[in-house]
Amino acid sequence: MKNLNEPTQENVEFMIEEIKVKLRMATAAAMQASSFSVGRYEDIKELYEVVASKEKFSISEVEALVSELGQLRK
């Protein structure tokens, strides 16, 4: 398990990639992990923890999570 307590760009990129996989994002290619800043680390980590804690998502949940991701981009 990765130590996500350190706010590094590497951790940001790891969490974004994991979120994209878990949400099976059709537009994952457009959501580049490098588009996210360490400055939003806590917000990204919180979103990551929500996504990691669930097995399945409704369409509306996926839309809300993707929208939130979009707002966290640089």
Rg calc: 11 Å
Runs in which pLDDT lies below 50 for 5 or more consecutive residues are none
- Number of β-strand runs: 0
Alpha-beta content class: mainly alpha
Percent strand equals: under 5%
Following the backbone from N to C, one meets helices and strands in this order, namely: HHH
**Domains (count):** 1
Shape: globular
Please tell me the overall pLDDT: 87
Number of helices: 3
Proportion of helical residues = 55-70%
Pfam families: DUF1128
Brief summary of the model shown:
The chain has helices at residues 9-23, 41-53, 59-72. By secondary structure, it is mainly alpha-helical.
Distinctive features:
about 55% helix, about 70 residues, globular, mainly alpha, UPF0435
Describe the structure.
Pfam families: DUF1128. The mean pLDDT is 87. The protein has helices at 9-23, 41-53, 59-72. The protein has one domain (9-72). Helix 1 (9-23) runs parallel beside helix 2 and helix 2 runs antiparallel to helix 3 (59-72). It contains three helices and no strands. With 74 residues, it is mainly alpha-helical. The relative contact order is 0.19.
